[in-house]
Amino acid sequence: MTTIQINNQALIDKLQSVSTHLNDTSKLGHAIASSFLTVVEDNFDSEGRPAWAGLSAVTLAKRKGGKKLYQTGQLRNSISTKVNKDEVVIGTNDPKSATHQFGAKQGQYGHNKRNVPLPWGNIPARPFLPMDKDGNLQPEAEDALTHDVEYFYQSLFD
Known about the structure:
The protein is mainly alpha-helical. The protein has one domain (24-155). The protein has helices spanning 9-21, 26-46, 57-62, 74-77, 97-102, 139-155; strands at 80-83, 88-91. Helix 1 (9-21) packs parallel to helix 6 (139-155) and helix 2 runs antiparallel to helix 6. The longest helix has 21 residues, at 26-46.
């Protein structure tokens, strides 16, 4: 599991203030989860933000057309969120997800019984979750988080 890093101290301070003053943080958590899920869906629709790497000639020859990472919809439909009083989790249990999110080097997963490397070629990262390999939020996710926190911050004074 990757922990998301928020690199905006003002946002961190406001988030801590909001969470300290709310009797029930689950509404904030559900708002954040919903916003992150929307960012993920927008990432799939846009084929990455920034744009995902192109497909290899072999992959292009085997596929049926359509958007990258969306042949069957299995990966996109596997994205789920979980909220409790202390955390928001977004992720997937799809076994291919880590390879797509972070990429994989040729042979990273060993070799098959015919001694062919797995994967047989390098697979570039095509991050669909709202953070990079170091856990830094993508700009759209940070904007959404800022909006959610600001909404709940303002509600403290209404």
